[in-house]
Amino acid sequence: MTTSELAPDTLPTTRPAERFAPLFARIAEGVVAREQDHELPRAQVRELLAAGFGRLRLPVAEGGEGLDLVEFTDLLVDLATADSALPQVFRGHIAWVEQVLSLPPGEHRARWVERIARGELVGNAWSEVGDGVTGEQQTVVTTRDGRTSVSGRKYYTTGTIFADWTDATARRATGADGLDGGFEVVTALVPVHAEGVSVSDDWDGFGQQLTGTGTLVLDDVEVDPADVAPFTERFRYQTALYQLVLLAVQAGIAAAVERDTGAQVRARTRSYTHGLAPLVRNDAQVLSVVGEISATAFTARALVRAAAQAVQAAADTAHLPGTAADREANVLAEIRTAQAQVVLSESVPRAATLLFNTLGASGTSRARDLDRHWRNARTVASHNPVIYKQRIVGDFSVNGTEPPFVWDIGTHASVDPAAVRAQESRR
Fold first, then answer.
1. For the chain, domain boundaries
2. pLDDT tens string 308-324
3. CATH homologous superfamily, domain 10-121
4. Which residue, of 157, 299, 321, 342, is most buried by count of CB atoms within 10 Å of its CB?
C-alpha cells in the first residue's frame, strides 16, 4: 500500500520533515542531470504526490495532515534546497488547496477534497501574453445548450504540464443570456487531459527552466459549471500566499548555495600562491565569503518563516470577512511577504554570485552547473517586480496606505500597441 492509499487514521506519525527528507535527498541527486538534459521532473512530481505532499494542508479527518502554513513552508524551503523548480511546480496547487479549504461545507468542497486527498494535482493558468488590455481576459467561458466550455490561450502556466487540472482565469458574459454586453472575471478548473487541451513546454527563461511554465491552449474544453466561479470569491490572502511560495524557493536556493559552496571549498586541493593558506578551506578570505553566504541563507529562512506566520494569521481570520481583524491580518500578510521579497530578491542572487569568489575558474564548469543557482534566483526575483513592492512597502510605512491585494499585467487601455510598434520601427 502506498502512502497515498493510507486511511487518515493510519497516516505516518513521524514528523513530515523527517519523512520527506529521504525523498528530498533522492530528488537532489538528479537535479543537475535533469537541468542539463532539460528533463522535466515528472517522476519526482508524481513521487511527491504519492507521498502525500499535495494534501499536507488538508485536515487529518479529510485525508491530510493538517499542517499550518509555517510548517508547510518549512517543507517548501527544504524541497527548494533539493530542486528549486518543484515548489514552483506546486504553486498553483497550493493556492487551489487553500481555496478549497475556504469553501463552505457541501458537495463541491467534498469533491475537491477527495481529489486532492487521492493525489490529483492542480496547475496554474492565469497569465496571458500579447496586447490584451489590463483587467480583461481574452480567454472566455461560454454556456450554450447546457454545455459550459472554455477557450483561450495562456502562458506562464506553471505546473500545468504535470497536472490533472489547471486553475484558469477567464471572462464570462453577464446578464440574461449574456445580452447586456458586460462580463465578469471568473476562474475555471479545467481537466488537463480533456479533449481540446494542449500544453507546451516552451518556457524560454534562463532560470527555473523545468517548472513547466509554458503555453496552454484551450479549444472549446468542456468544464463542470460548478467549477466556474467569480474571481471575487477567491480567498483574500491568495497574492501573499503565491508570493510566499516564491520566497520559499529563494530561501531554498540560498541554502543550496551554502551547501554547494561548502562542498566545493572542502574538496579543493589547488590554491593560489598569493592566497592565505595551503588549503582553500583554511583561507580566511575565502571563509569570510562563505560566512556571508551562510548568513544570507540563515536570514532567508528566517524571513520566510516570519512571512509564513503572517500569511497563517490571515488564514486564521478568513472566517471573519469584513472585520477589522481580517483586514489587518491580510494587510500584514501582504506587507510581510513584500518586505521579504525586497530583501531576498537582492541578497539571494548576490549569494549565488559570491559562490564563485570562493573557487577558481573550474567553478564555472558547465558540468557542475553552479550557475543555475544565480539563474534560478534571478528568475524568481523577476516575478511580481520588486521595484513596485519597494514603493508599496514604503507607502505603507510612511502613510499607512493599504497594499493592493490583486494586480494584473497587460496593455493599458490608453495605449495603442500598433502605434507604439510603428513608432519604434521608424527609429
1. 10-121, 140-233, 238-399
2. 999 999 999 999 999 99
3. Acyl-CoA dehydrogenase/oxidase, N-terminal domain (1.10.540.10)
4. 157
